[in-house]
Amino acid sequence: xxxxxxxxxxxxxxxxxxxxxxxxxxxxxxxxxxxxxxxxxxxxxxxxxxxxxxxxxxxxxxxxxxxxxxxxxxxxxxxxxxxxxxxxxxxxxxxxxxxxxxxxxxxxxxxxxxxxxxxxxxxxxxxxxxxxxxxxxxxxxxxxxxxxxxxxxxxxxxxxxxxxxxxxxxxxxxxxxxxxxxxxxxxx
Length: 188
Prior knowledge:
Dihydrofolate Reductase, subunit A; 188 residues
């Protein structure tokens, strides 16, 4: 069975976006080691799951980077563009993005169906509401938090609305020169 992995940037105080979805707090000076780590994680999956709200920005960003062979993120961008993407939406009838298909059914049923398909693992990057829904349904098998050395005091979190304590087990951690710490957890 395929796993569903989460990769998400976060602040030290647990926010994945500022108020109104701002991401200006993220560390942007990626060194070779963190890019190597991201590429290693990327090589473990072959399908990207996303909520509708973040898909347009995601596709536009990575398509732009993939058009610039001089970019240090070029190899990663090619994967992001080439990997199939499943976009969860209740409002769209067809996908306006290349290499994407829509999932319009019940979240639990759709993700379970995808997990039972053959292939590598799957990844989810967001958005906040979509990831929160996956967490509430206990559908994420591995959490990869890229903790940025910054606190913002208020913003958006993916653990909103949990009705009880949600335990995670630390699997591994890695620090990088730019101050980012990657924490990998599995549900307990």
